[in-house]
Amino acid sequence: MQHPYIEGLPKQEKIEVQFENALQKIFVLLRSNLGHDFSGYKETTIRRRIERRMAVHRIEEIARYVRYLQETPAEMENSSKTC
């Protein structure tokens, strides 16, 4: 069936929702572990900087980057310096 209510969100919108959820997790991790609050920063700036950190570590999915942040305390410190 291809009714808009049955199909759900288009793929791009799903990706954006996933990115927003991951972004909030990153903010919580940085705030709770380092005391930095990046929630007031421009989203485009934060997005670009997170994507740069992901590229450095060759991580293609933001959910994997969140996991990497959780498992690698040094990256949390490095990511806060670039944000």
What labels would you give this structure?
single chain; mainly alpha; 5 helices; 75% helix
Structure, described:
The protein has helices spanning 4-7, 11-34, 43-56, 62-71, 73-82. Helix 2 (11-34) runs parallel beside helix 4 (62-71) and helix 4 crosses helix 5 (73-82). It is mainly alpha-helical and 83 residues long. Helices cover 75% and strands 0% of the residues.
Topology:
Layout: H1 4-7, H2 11-34, H3 43-56, H4 62-71, H5 73-82
Helix pairs in contact: 2-4, 4-5
Indicate the low-confidence ranges by residue numbers: none
* Main β-sheet description: none
Class computed from helices, strands and strand pairing: mainly alpha
Total number of beta strands: 0
Average pLDDT works out at: 82
* Strand composition percent: under 5%
Q: Secondary-structure element sequence?
A: HHHHH
Q: What gyration radius follows from the Cα positions, in whole Å?
A: 15 Å
Indicate the percent of residues in helices: over 70%
Distance between the termini: 44 Å
Query: How many helices in DSSP terms?
Result: 5
Shape: globular
